[in-house]
Amino acid sequence: MGDDSEWMKLSVDQKCEHKLWKARLSGYEEALKIFQKIKDEKSPEWSKYLGLIKKFVTDSNAVVQLKGLEAALVYVENAHVAGKTTGEVVSGVVSKVFNQPKAKAKELGTEICLMYIEIEKGEAVQEELLKGLDSKNPKITVACIETLRKALSEFGSKIILLKPIIKVLPKLFESREKAIRDEAKLIAVEIYRWIRDALKAPLQNINSVQLKELEEEWLKLPTGVPKPTRFLRSQQELEAKLEQQQSAGGDAEGGGDDGDEAPQIDAYELLEAVEILSKLPKDFYDKIEAKKWQERKEALEAVEVLVKNPKLEAGDYSDLVKALKKVVGKDTNVMLVALAAKCLTGLAVGLRKKFGQYAGHVVPTILEKFKEKKPQVVQALQEAIDAIFLTTTLQSISEDILAVMDNKNPTIKQQTSLFIARSFRHCTSSTLPKSLLKPFCAALLKHINDSAPEVRDAAFEALGTALKVVGEKAVNPFLADVDKLKLDRIKECSEKVELVYGKKAGATADKRESKALPGKTAASGAAGDKDVKEAAAPKSGPLKKAPATKASGPPKKGKPAVSGASGGSGSKNKKGPDVKEIVEPELSVEVCEEKASVVLPSTCLQLLDSSNWKERLACMEEFQKAVELMDRTEMPCQALVRMLAKKPGWKETNFQVMQMKLHIVALIAQKGNFSKTSAQVVLDGLVDKIGDVKCGNNAKEALTAIAEACLLPWTAEQVMSMAFSQKNPKNQSETLNWLSNAIKEFGFSGLNVKAFISNVKTALAATNPAVRTSAITLLGVMYLYVGPPLRMFFEDEKTALLSQIDAEFEKMQGQTPPAPTRGTSKNIGGGTDEGEDGDEPDEGGSDVVDLLPRVEISDKITLELISKIGDKNWKIRKEGLDEVSSIINEAKFIQPNIGELPAALKGRLNDSNKILVQQTLSILQQLAVAMGPNVKQHVKNLGIPIITVLGDSKNNVRAAALATVNAWAEQTGMKEWLEGEDLSEELKKENPFLRQELLGWLAEKLPTLRSTPTDLILCVPHLYSCLEDRNGDVRKKAQDALPFFMMHLGYEKMAKATGKLKPTSKDQVLAMLEKAKANMPAKPAAPAKASSKPAGGAGPAKFQPVSAPVEDSMSSSVESKPDPKKTRGGGVSKAKSVQGKKMPSKSSLKEDDDKSGPIFIIVPNGKEQRMRDEKALKVLKWNFTTPRDEYIEQLKLQMSSCVARWLQDEMFHSDFQHHNKALAVMVDHLESEKEGVISCLDLILKWLTLRFFDTNTSVLMKALEYLKLLFTLLSDEEYHLTENEASSFIPYLILKVGEPKDVIRKDVRAILNRMCLVYPASKMFPFIMEGTKSKNSKQRAECLEELGCLVESYGMNVCQPTPGKALKEMAIHIGDRDNTVRNAALNTIVTVYNVHGDQVFKLIGNLSEKDMSMLEERIKRSAKRPAAAPIKQVEERPQRTQNLNSNANMLRKGPAEDMSSRLKIMYRTYRIQARSLSGHSEATHTVPREFQLDLDEIENDNGTVRCEMPALVQHKLDDIFEPVLIPEPKIRAVSPHFDDMHSNTASTINFIISQVASGDINTSVQALTQIDEVLRQEDKSEAMSGHIDQFLIATFMQLRLIYNTHMADEKLDKDEIIKLYSCIIGNMISLFQMENLAREASTGVLKDLMHGLITLMLDSRIEDLEEGQQVFRSVNLLVVKVLEKSDQTNILSALLVLLQDSLLATAGSPKFSELVMKCLWRMVRLLPDTINSINLDRILLDIHIFMKVFPKEKLKQCKSEFPIRTLKTLLHTLCKLKGPKILDHLTMIDNKNESELEAHLCRMMKHSLDQMGSKSDKETEKGASRIDEKASKAKVNDFLAEIFKKIGSKENTKEGLAELYEYKKKYSDADIEPFLKNSSQFFQSYVERGLRVIEMEREGKGRIPSSTGISPQMEVSCVPTPTSTVSSVGNTNGEEVGPSVYLERLKILRQRCGLENTKQDDRPALTLLSKPSVPAVVSSTDMLHSKLSQIRESREQHHHLDLDSNQMHSAATTSSSSSSSSTAANIDDLKKRLERIKSSRK
Q1: What confidence tens digit (pLDDT) does each residue in 1719-1748 have?
Q2: Buried b / exposed e across 985-1014, counting CB within 10 Å, b at 16+?
Q3: How many other CB atoms are there within 10 angstroms of residue 1120's CB atom?
Q4: Which of 2039, 2028, 1941 is CA-nearest to residue 1976?
Q5: Which of 11, 819, 999, 1427 pairs as cysteine with 1037 (C-beta 3.0–4.6 A)?
Q6: pTM for the complete prediction?
Q7: Cα separation, 754 vs 1701, whole angstroms
Q8: DSSP codes of every residue in 1183-1246
């Protein structure tokens, strides 16, 4: 029991984890009780058990496990955190519970799974259960299937995703285990219950017996729609509702609801798509063209088999469709036609909407093929066209169908009508709008009068179907003049029709009708009757039947009815005006007089032609009275107007009579049934008088009345032709003026633009300016309706005229056409309801554009042109596009048939040449304007590809694509774009450019639409993924678009669509949806829309600004900056202003009262209490990575006592705009409530940290603004932040210092600076230091800079915990990957160096050589000298404020420094490597420190010594070096310190070179182009000298950038990269063709260059590019040039190092090493020619190092034998060429005896000695004296080479010079020029001088004056010194240079010392030579010279001048004996020497 007692004391959760099963059992039982007791689902108690629940279910003891399962079930049911455990617990249940033998355990396991589904974790559960199906244990599989079945049965198919289950079903049916097969059967039956026949297709391939059994089971199932019996938590309300309904006994409604959604699952969705394009026979396209029909049949059969797959994968089927179309259209064998049609059917069925883009190509062909009579062909074609119809919309193929309707072949007409009928069945009233119905009805009405009965029947069927779909009210207007018999026939057909969508369509139509009727019923009823009766009237003859129906109505109602009959609908039908017109026969004068006498007084008629004007006037007055009193039906209009026209008629001379006459004409036209015949009588006279000053207005009035009676289009045409057949300019101009006004009054509908345009052109050409002005005014009015297309007709006018027209159009821009005030009631008796009204403007608009004359251009789109556009050569492609452009330009307006052009243009949209892509886009813009609304049918095949171009990486291409899409959308409307899956497919592509452009476009377009196709919902999942896209712009655009999607789809649908998201994403998206719901704009109202959509484009453009505020105000909720104004109601839409104004007005009084008090309430000791609570852990410590809900709740709670309630509501509102308001209020109250602010400071700062986690920039900016003011206030109040406040705020502020926006970073830095005034800098330091560990590089850089500022302002004491640790931390960042971070770290340490001096090096500790060199370089360049006394006052405030700005500015310049110097810093490491190869060993610190101490003193000492010391040196060497003139430019690049000496050329070149390494491709290409120009011109190329290394460094940096960054960037166009490569390679080839420049490249740089080039050759990504091979060829050529033209020593050395590195790199490619070796082999081949110019000592040193790293044994272990063979070949060749002398060249190797190389060379020599004898040895000993005169030329060369080698070596230099002197004396004609010309200027002058000296000695002319103080021994070593002195000191003008130059030199010297050299104890001590200072001189001259040698290295061809300091030491030391004390002595000597310098100055 002892054990028991122990565990019984434990807490419940500890018991649950105990080893003893009893303890666990007890723990689980107690936990179960606890779980049942906890009532609050959010209780913190639940969280304790979060990690234990998995153990509950997976317990190893079966009994305990059972109890654990019970507890787990209760936990999952009640705990709000249970969802977090879903994955692990369900996987535990699957693996450890489902395999248990106990049924109870399985049952509980299943219950747990179902409970997780109930708490909304269905997807995770299903995922785990599906994994369980793969288990090897059949028990588990069975249990998983059973659980899935139960879940489906209870929750239904909406919650349980069926697709993944159906996918695995066939596999389950194949299982060997019967139990699994049985369970599979049960789940299949359950699935069938939910989705019915959709399941049949996926299970088609299972065992036939099983299938049969299944089908039997399926038959037994009840037919009703299944309903879920269990609901998710979020649906529990629905469950309650359902129960209520059932208890009320009527679940009909609920059933109806669900019934709508039941057949939701489509079998097609459950199928896997099959890819068939790759499976087509390879010879398919050849066979399909074959002459033998059998071969064509084979090809088609192959396709038929493939397309039988029920679901096909999307792809480019255009070629296949083209081939099939050709067979259908042109094949003579009807059997093949049928077969091809079947294939098309298969494609259409398998691809569904994705086939839509090809529909337009195929439909016309199929329809025309209906001429075939064979039933099997006709049937196949019918099936094909029906299947194709389902993939597209009737709208998009309507043009093609209507074109075929006029065909003469009756079969085609019949089949087309039948097809229309079948198509209509699939339509609803919304998808068959009036605009579409109208042309179809017109065409079908022709067919019902056809002579062929089958054509008539088919047309009746089609019309009947239309009637059924949209209802009688919509169709009747088009059937106005169909006789009753035919009408009855149509209705009869209508009753027989069964629609695809059941009766729904009809029902909705009826509903719409019934809605429209109230209030209008009587009118519309009357109108309907009138339509029918009036249509019959003309045929029945007398007009007098009409009164019966009309008498009742008042005159105004009656009048419209006439024109309703006569052409109201005609006004909308292009061919309409004369169809329904009442044509009155022309009456003779006698008949007219007779009719007139009946209605007019007799006196009136008699006085008509009286000669007395007064009588005529009286007569007219009577006439007028009579007309006024006449009834409309009794008025004989024609008779009356003929009386008026009777002599004198229109020639009336008295203006009063004339005015009266014209007025009467107007009256008759208004009051009577005025026909065109009557109008013809008067029009001529009216036009004649229109220009009359007195009668003109009356004439216009009469014309307007006639226009109202006879319709404007007809009247206008007559009037215009009459006016322009006259010559009176006044009449012409007034006619045009009248027409301008008439168009405004009547609207533009039905006008014949073409006729007008020819008249207007005549008017524009008129000489009379008034006529021209009127014509331009008329154009302006027309522009209102037609829009920009109108201008195209006048482009060939003179420029002056065109500019006037443009000015007129400009005036009209932005105006909307006025609503017609006249003639409107004529539009079909006034019975349209609102819905239809909405469609009207659309039609009107399209009519206007349709009236424009269109040219057929399909004949110009020839095959030749199409092949041109697709040519391989871009120039020819461009020609093709130019031709297309000119064809469209000439045609102005074109018909929609453009042949094969769409496919050709589509191909060019993804052209590799971006210029052509842009040209294609501009052609497509032209096309849209030229084709007008007909461009609709090309949206799918051409419009969608334009959208794809929005994903281009180039900004200008995207802009062009957007402009094109807008131009298209202007013509087509948005419906076509939004239909189908195309748009959602585009949005699915994960291209950030495409996504942001497309979403931006949708956000612009959606708000203007009144309705959208249902397919818009397909875009929603992709919209949600955009909301979480990595790219910020995409997220922003997605958020902007969200409200507009919701506006059309509704919140419910959008929220439902989140169901498939991951839980975390779902929450985020739902939050955004909530936000968007608040900002959702209302749909545009119908009238506004009506006026906004006139035709061709000007309209929409004009109207958009009007609707834009809606969009703006909504997006302002998502956007950032304009918030303050918008929230205060500036420029918001009506919808918003209603919310904005009315809402507050209700509660405004209350709110004002609330808001009057203080916002912060001072609670005594409140802050202290909060701190105590946090310390005691009573509340959560403010420490998190992202703020969780509990933190926010806690802060809310703490604030409730001390912050005003209303402000708190604003602060914690879900909408960011409220946060902005809160901040604005806090800013306002800052000054007035200082105490309150300070008392709540901790809470305010905490709340602000929450704002840092918001994504909205405007809030962040406001918060930072507030913080700046807050810290200024705190500083003024001398407040000190508490630890608590600082630690809960500063870390979060520092996060924001890494923001991408500059403004924010600056603000944060400003706040950090101000904080130092209220919080000690030393305490700030650790927080900022922590910030440097961030993953965000910007944050690291900014924090480092801030640390620098702190140190500079407050001294070293600020560094915490100690300066050493802090600096080590900072120094780590010198090696950071990011350039800005490296720069910041370097700048910061330089700042510390300026404050602290050399101590820094000690504190930093060990740095890598690369980092140290970068640091030293930067210190060298920093302008500041170490400060005398570093500032230590940490807390001195004024100090900080003064220093801050200057310091910050200085530091911030860091990253923007001159690029060339940055390159130098970054790549100085290469030069160090190069030097270390030449013999540098590890650095030592002892000597350099000694040196530095005193040299520092010199530097700080501003005496004259700096002038005198160099003077001393110059004095010494002047005489000897007068002839030596070093070309100036080559020196310029020596030192970056001599900025004042840089000429412009050099700095320009520096700048251009720095741009070569730019990350921006264009910048780099431009820089390379400039350099190329310099290199190509011989006279200029010299300017590059001295910059070669720098240029090569920049180049291989760029190569590396391309390789690592650009090539990996999918957005970048690869053509750009190829262009960049070709520029780089071209430049390098130019460079390496110039030997003098090529030789300047140093070893390190060459090594990296070769590395870059070889890496490029191995880049497989380039192979895949079109130009890839060309790049490789160019690189090959370049490598050869580099090998041949570079300094041979340097390149050979570089290759050896590169080979060594590549063999060491285990990860490297073996190919790389192989290519390096190939380069070495080439070098070996060149050796015989180049051996004399190679510094063998250096090469042998490299080989020695190589062999040290790779001893023979190691090399032999390599996989390849090439490395060892390469090495042997190289050594063998060298031995062969140099013989035994090669052993003399091992001078640079320290311990030769240990070197494997020497042994190897010796072995080789033995072999060769056998052949050569000992001759060579003797020759070497005796030298020149033994030369045989007859020696061959080769031997002479050898001998001279030997001499020069001696001159070059340190020991034998004198001997060499003496031998050369002897040789020259003996062979005076000997030519030593070839040996000298390859050497540098130094060497040549040295040899000449040496020979002169020997000559002087031999002839006894004296010696070199001893006063120089240099021992002869040292001469050689000193040689370079003066040269470098001269070159670096001598100014270009020969002036004396100031002390700063020498100071600079000393500084270099000192720094170089810091880098020096071999370890003290490794080398022999220096013995003192004749002067103690000699070694110092040696090393200092070397140091100075080595600075030069870095840049000159490549020019020093001969090894003897490679005067690296190390060699000097070896030269000076090899001969000397060792002494331990000598080093110290040297140092003392040096000190003494410096003392002497100082004293001499005094």
Answers
A1: 888 888 888 888 888 888 888 888 888 887
A2: bbbbebbbbbbbbbbbbbbbbbbbbeebbe
A3: 16
A4: 2028
A5: 999
A6: 0.36
A7: 80
A8: --SS--HHHHHHHHHHHHTTB-HHHHHHHT-SSHHHHHHHHHHHHHTTTTTHHHHHHTHHHHHH
